[in-house]
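#struct-help
A.M.: can someone run this one for me? Single chain, 482 residues.
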Amino acid sequence: MTTLLITGATIIDGVADKPLTDSAILIDGGRIKAIGHREALDVAPHVRTLDLAGKFVIPGLMNANVHLLVNASLETLLRFEGRYEALIEEAAQVALKAGMTTVFDTWGPRRALINVRDRIESGETVGSRIRCAGNIIGFDGPFSPDFFGKAAEIASSWFVDRVNAAWVENSGRHLMWMTPEQVGAEVSRYIERGIDFVKYGATEHGAMAAGAFLQFSERTQQAIVEAGRAAGRTVQAHSTTVEGLRMSIEAGCDLITHCNMTGPVPIPVETLDLFERTQCGAVIFPVTEAGLAHVKGAVSDLEWTMWSAGDKNARRLIGSGAPILLGNDGGVFAKELLREPWLKATWNGMPEQEALGRLATGHFAWLRAMEEKGMPAMDLLHAATRNIARAYKLDTDLGTLEVGKIADMVVLDKDPLEAADHYRSIHAVIKGGVSVDLDALPERPLLTAELAPPLEEEANFKRFLVHGTRLPGCPSCISGGH
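D.P.: on it. Structure tokens below:
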């Protein structure tokens, strides 16, 4: 690794209350060797110097909750069967191009994620640094009622089982029948397969009751946390109710995913106090005002009450004393999926500028949403960097610009402390002391590639029923839809 001297920029290191001006950063061996006035640094002759006058340098952005293979639809998993690692690698490069030098994948196919993680770590391929949980403990695979159960009615049982097994292995819904001790033993076995942290379902994923059912008892949740601790792993929970949230914090979780989403019921004051006392990380799913307007007009009244409560929770969490973490379920969606009319009637159908769940841009929408809700500018930076590193116990190496830490940083054209939208003004990304060739990413576009041009036959294709005016007849039998 080469030595690099960065000069001229305003440095927002994530430690000091104010930016550092008239300072330089010396990088050696992929880590920060020194920060200070240029004249005071011990710099060898002919060191490569990067003059960033007028720019702003911040720590590499992080994302506490992504899904590098979120597009787990039947069409995608059939089309790319045997190439899931290529999709994950593409997504890791999309994340890196968007300024995220480290991402935490909280649900996906364990072996494929680990293989890509290790190739990036060794330098064999480029991409955002990956830490992964594999499956969510207690959930079944993509082709189950927990996610996309309809696929099991269409695809062969051979393919359905093959896909579900790639995600679940020994960590699925069958654990709900077991004693706490048995569940803890199964979690320990799953950890031995190489995952970086543990994520479990405190509540179900909406398959039966919109997320209201508790997935595991308090004793079982404690057994899962203890199994993770014994193996030196952080533990987090998926929670969608106020009781699930309380139980997860009391079980000793390090962070809770989308903790502001508690159904139609706001988080009680005593649970907000519990966040502050334990310093459990609060991964929030905020939506911009424009995004909320779309959701209100697109979803059912039941769903809207949940989003409305989630918005109130996000605002209250800002002043609660809980460490707030940026996370957005970010993933790469296939272009053909984004064209589907039904998608617009979901939270993933928000206009692109507001869409929280996009891997390439959703973190920018997150920052603007939290700015709109009153989160101070420096706290926004901490939520996207330092707080995540601390929650995952990686702050010795990551999260701030300090001597001895890995040299991950983002160079911005505009001051992020002036406006959250300025995080979009990425000038350069440096990961491990090496400048990233942003124009080259992703190297092998798959889901990000343009759709194939129309077939010759499509010009002559006549639909049996066209979109628009319905034909006379029973409306439940003839919808006129696709």
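A.M.: thanks! The longest strand covers residues 31-36.
D.P.: also worth noting: Residues 61-399 form a domain with the TIM Barrel fold (CATH 3.20.20.140).
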